């Protein structure tokens, strides 16, 4: 059985209103750490925070007002259960929660990145939260922090600060990922900050911690998008990251892979695709060969277009393209690739500037055929005359990958003007700005959660599509989840995290 880890973390992109989804599907570590002499055994996947046996969903609301502090931010944990996601309650976690270190302050943006992962190996997920605007005494304003909050049957377990930005404006916590990158059975944390990626690694069978810089380089004053998977086919997870700059100080765009170097006790760069920028990354086995593949969402060229075409033909980038780099059994990752967009035969819609097709990505095996399928959000998609109403598209994989031997795709569209989907498509709803997948009701079939941060005058909402179907779909909004007021749930559904 092939062991895989998925992690897609959110990072603010160039425009002030554009965001990406934060999605995480991570493996629980083994109860006892294994030596690095062999790949670790397959283990269960969990995002169960409250120990009820059901996958849960974390929704970060970093722009929310908490205790009068604007943009202090919070995270809403929505419980899965037999009746479906959100129909069993949930809790709100902020820096005013007793077990969480710190206090809510204006501009902290607690919840800018969220992740549910079992770091301790007890079968219970921890909540990992980035607060890139956190001021840290002795380090300066906006140093940023990453907090880990323990799961519990009721409320929350103890919380602690896992990583802190080294200086002012470091903005640690813009993106996060967790996986066993060192291959010893423990969970390691990767954190994106302003122009920097750092890692906290468990080494020596979990007896020691190493904090190391993975990469420090101009990234346009932002953090990169992160994902994890076994791209080298050696049984140990690797790190993927994507970032770009425009005239800051020069224009560049990269997707890079990193693997743990045990001798140096740091991550080593193993693969690069230059001149390609991506707003989202997702990992899955899209061709069913048992190897991890990497999907680049809203892939486009930023730098000199004459260098190469890492996102496929330039025409595919219109409106946002999705580019897939496939795994190779001999470790030659990226030897084969595919590209598609909304002009590809079989894909819903028409490629138009501003659609942002692939701005968020999630992975699931929708039809249980042993190949992963892809859900792609397009928050800029116009529905009729309503600009940026947004859509999400299910892309079904074929034997050769996301497109078949003829270069055609199979897709199913979802938007709020489709019969059975609650609500109505309205200008700037941004339906599809975030997507996440999980079997939230344990019926053996995957469900999809779709965020629409612009819904209801930007109070936002999350739409639950059982098995990515309109049958039985429903909406979760701040009001029906019992949040105190729309103003304290600004852009609810902007980021999500889930199994």
UniProtKB/TrEMBL annotation:
Disordered, as annotated region: 439-458, 475-499
Q: Which UniProt keywords apply?
A: Glycoprotein, Hydrolase, Repeat, Signal
Q: Which domain of life is it from?
A: Bacteria
Q: Indicate whether Signal appears among the record's keywords.
A: yes
Signal peptide coordinates:
1-33
Q: Which InterPro entries match?
A: FG-GAP (IPR013517), Int_alpha_beta-p (IPR013519), Integrin_alpha (IPR000413), Integrin_alpha_N (IPR028994)
Biased composition regions of type Polar residues, renumbered to the chain: 485-499
Q: Which residues cross the membrane?
A: none
Q: What PANTHER family does the record tag this protein with? A: GLYCOSYLPHOSPHATIDYLINOSITOL PHOSPHOLIPASE D, PHOSPHATIDYLINOSITOL-GLYCAN-SPECIFIC PHOSPHOLIPASE D
What is this protein identified as? FG-GAP repeat protein
Q: Which organism is it from?
A: Streptomyces gottesmaniae
């Amino acid at each position: 059985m092939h062991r895989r880890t998925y992690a897609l973390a959110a990072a603010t992109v160039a425009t002030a209103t554009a965001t990406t989804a934060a999605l995480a599907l991570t493996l629980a570590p083994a109860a006892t750490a294994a030596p690095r002499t062999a790949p670790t055994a397959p283990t269960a996947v969990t995002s169960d925070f409250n120990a009820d046996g059901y996958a849960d969903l974390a929704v970060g609301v970093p722009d929310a007002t908490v205790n009068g502090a604007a943009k202090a931010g919070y995270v809403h944990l929505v419980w899965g259960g037999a009746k479906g996601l959100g129909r069993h309650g949930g809790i709100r976690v902020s820096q005013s929660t007793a077990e969480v270190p710190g206090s809510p302050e204006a501009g902290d943006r607690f919840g800018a990145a969220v992740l549910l992962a079992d770091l301790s190996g007890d079968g219970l997920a921890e909540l990992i939260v980035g607060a890139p605007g956190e001021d840290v005494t002795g380090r300066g304003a906006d140093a940023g922090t990453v907090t880990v909050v323990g799961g519990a049957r009721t409320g929350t377990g103890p919380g602690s600060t896992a990583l802190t930005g080294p200086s002012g404006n470091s903005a640690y916590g813009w993106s996060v990922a967790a996986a066993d990158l060192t291959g010893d059975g423990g969970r390691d944390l990767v954190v994106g900050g302003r122009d920097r990626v750092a890692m906290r690694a468990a080494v020596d069978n979990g007896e020691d911690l190493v904090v190391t810089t993975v990469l420090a380089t101009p990234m346009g004053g932002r953090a990169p998008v992160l994902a994890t998977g076994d791209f080298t086919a050696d049984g140990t997870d690797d790190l993927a990251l994507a970032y770009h700059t425009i005239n800051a100080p020069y224009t560049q765009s990269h997707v890079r892979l990193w693997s743990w170097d045990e001798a140096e006790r740091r991550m080593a760069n193993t693969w690069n695709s230059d001149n390609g920028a991506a707003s989202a990354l997702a990992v899955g086995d899209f061709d069913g060969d048992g190897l991890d593949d990497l999907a680049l969402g809203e892939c486009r060229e930023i730098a000199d277009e004459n260098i190469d075409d890492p996102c496929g033909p330039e025409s595919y980038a219109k409106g946002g393209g999705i580019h897939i780099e496939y795994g190779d059994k001999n470790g030659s990752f990226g030897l084969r690739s595919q590209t598609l967009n909304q002009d590809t035969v079989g894909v819903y819609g028409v490629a138009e500037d501003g659609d942002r097709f692939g701005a968020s990505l999630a992975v699931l095996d929708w039809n249980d055929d042993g190949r992963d399928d892809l859900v792609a959000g397009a928050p800029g998609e116009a529905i009729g005359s309503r600009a940026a109403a947004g859509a999400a598209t299910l892309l079904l994989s074929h034997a050769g990958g996301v497109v078949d031997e003829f270069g055609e795709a199979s897709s199913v569209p979802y938007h709020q003007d489709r019969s059975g989907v609650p609500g109505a498509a309205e200008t700037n709803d941004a339906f599809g700005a975030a997507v996440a997948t999980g079997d939230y009701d344990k019926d053996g079939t995957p469900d999809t959660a779709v965020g629409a941060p612009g819904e209801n005058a930007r109070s936002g909402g999350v739409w639950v599509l059982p098995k990515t179907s309109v049958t039985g779909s429903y909406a979760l909004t701040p009001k029906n989840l019992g949040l105190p007021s729309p103003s304290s749930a600004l852009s609810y559904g902007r980021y999500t995290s889930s199994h």
